[in-house]
Automatic annotation (TrEMBL):
Pfam family for this entry, one: adh_short_C2
Disordered: annotated span: 255-274
Protein name: SDR family oxidoreductase
Species per Swiss-Prot/TrEMBL record: Streptomyces kurssanovii
Source species, domain of life: Bacteria
Keyword tRNA-binding listed: no
Keywords carried by this UniProt record: Oxidoreductase
């Protein structure tokens, strides 16, 4: 994957506790590792309990600390809410939350169903709202919420249900930061650009058509796609007291991809080979 060359930075998160939804792999796993490396304890959830157990033991082995796991499908009623409450009790409350789970269902407007649109909302903005609401009583004053949106949330692209659900997260940060001000809870959104992750669409394109991948990577201002660690660092900053003045903000973390005229990526047909 793309190597990070950034020097180590301390975010001052030692002894703090966080919930990261979808912390078993991808960006959520990178955030979990960074928080644990800082000396924080983390609760993570996802559907695959074996992947969660592997992630937790690897993080605990590398950094110590506590990683609480819970097998949760955010499309199933109450599982996310139950895990949020149980993990808050186990960690003694939260200093913040990263609503990282995301995804899409269905294709274009004429192919996708009402269920696809509802599920896509639940996977993104919907789960974020439910996580924040169920964690609210557990947040200590000064807590910070980060919603993981996407470049697709403000650079419209196919399929519309994904971008619309991601745009909702940008909106939610602005609206919820006002509503949660009395609790002294901040809410911000990060919008990653294209991240190169093992086994995911960019990696598959790289394996299948290295030239197409290299051409796309070269069009990015820094000549490559993002790695998960550099997005995780911005999230850690937003969770930290160093970002106390940042609230209700939308922060693109895309290496300047849109300024180079790139949206969320090449056309779907190029990415999937369909
Ligand atoms: N990758 C990119 O290039 C990119 C770019 C822009 C924005 N983003 C956004 O960044 C976030 C993370 O993306 P990623 O690529 O790292 O995702 P990922 O590799 O697909 O990982 C997603 C995590 O969420 C969990 N998850 C997925 N569906 C779930 C469900 N129904 N219930 C509970 N857990 C579920 C997964 O575990 P299980 O599968 O075991 O459930 C996994 O831990 C998403 O919000 C995504 O939209 C990603």
């Amino acid at each position: 994957m793309e190597e990070s060359t950034a020097p180590a930075v301390s975010y001052g998160l030692r002894g703090r506790t966080f919930l990261v939804t979808g912390g078993s792999r991808g960006l959520g796993y990178a955030v979990t590792r960074l928080l644990a490396a800082e000396g924080a304890s983390v609760a993570i959830c996802g559907r695959d309990s074996e992947a969660l157990a592997r992630a937790a033991s690897s993080v605990e082995e590398d950094f110590g600390g506590t990683v609480v796991t819970g097998s949760v499908d955010v499309l199933a009623p109450d599982e996310l809410e139950d895990f949020t409450v149980e993990s808050a009790a186990r960690l003694g409350g939260f200093d913040g939350l990263v609503a990282n789970i995301g995804g899409k269902r269905g294709g274009g407007l004429l192919e996708s169903t009402r269920e696809d649109w509802q599920a896509t909302w639940e996977l993104n903005g919907g789960h974020a709202v439910r996580a924040v609401r169920s964690a609210l009583e557990a947040f200590r004053p000064g807590s910070s919420v980060v919603l993981v949106s996407s470049i697709s949330g403000w650079k419209p692209r196919f399929p519309a249900q994904y971008g619309a659900a991601k745009a909702s997260e940008i909106y939610l940060a602005g609206a919820l930061c006002q509503e949660l001000a009395p609790y002294r809870v901040r809410v911000n959104t990060v919008s990653p650009g294209s991240i190169l992750l093992p086994g995911k669409s960019w990696d598959r394109l790289r394996q299948r058509d290295p030239e197409a991948y290299a051409a796309y990577a070269a069009r990015n201002p820094n000549g490559r796609l993002l790695n998960a660690e550099e997005v995780a660092r911005v999230i850690a900053f937003l969770l930290s007291p160093a970002s106390e003045a940042v609230n209700g903000a939308h922060i693109p973390v895309d290496g300047g991809q849109p300024q180079a005229g790139l949206g969320a990526g090449p056309a779907v047909s190029e990415r999937t080979g369909m």
